[in-house]
Amino acid sequence: MVDTSFFCFTQLLGQEKAKRLLSRSLAAGRVPHAYIFKGPEGVGKRLFARGVAAAVNCRDTKLFGACGVCSSCKKFRSMNHPDFLVVSPERGVIKIDQIRRLTKELSYPPYESVMRVVVLENIQTMRREAANSLLKTLEEPPENNLLILTAEASQEILATLTSRCQVVPFSQLTIDDTVDILVQQGIDREAARPLARLSEGSPGKALLFQKMKMIGLWRKVVSFLSDPAVDRDRDVGELLQLAENMAVLKEELPSLLGLLKIWLRDLLLGDVQNSGVEQDGGALVKSWNSSELFDKLHAIDKAERELARNCNKNLVCEVLLFRLQ
Fold this sequence. Notes:
single chain; 325 residues; alpha/beta; Rossmann fold; 5 strands; disordered N terminus
């Protein structure tokens, strides 16, 4: 029996609204020239887009979705389909040269399928000149091409792009669905639950946390900040070492700061059990009032703004840890 979970977008856990919208469009044969899949990071937008591409090009017309065994599906399985293109940010940005190359490619008919499918990932990273270049394609879409744009919901994208595409909303997954996905990826269920919760229903983020061992570093930072025995002057060496370890995360450092914000919000709500910090032998932890916790959240907000301005990561982390003590 062939595993078709990659090809059949209906097998994606959660995202029922997106499934209904795509199901109706495909069943009625009214597929627009472009979609925007908009939602939080790591909730299945790219996987869904690839599943739609496979379903659109599947040779088995009796099956809704993708069969996984026809010649088209086999090429999708090997990631070698000539009519499936992915445009991803280069060094964090989609550039105008990428859009120009894409425009040239779209001027030719699909090689072997009825429909060429192009996925443009994270269009919120697109420079304005690149977005304006893409607008021309969206205004006069070439025949037999489907463009699927993915966008991070928390980031701004040009309204002119949105107005020329059908927007398909994606949402955070439930913790249980996220756990199930992580277990399918080989993560122990006991370890998957805290990952699912700390990623706020984003399997993609959870897998990234696992890969980068971010949870372990997060626990070290939280334990250091929570320990009443820590002395600011005496233990400054440990603080500086933690700051250095944080800075090593580079582009993923904001994700760690996001975890710290979740921890502080849990403390504000009095949810110590779910705060993710396991104290050995009932060890004492610092107790902060709501005003102090809000100050710490503001300190993280400031650190995030400084990182966005490309300030020195080591220095940002050092100052932040001093403020969080």
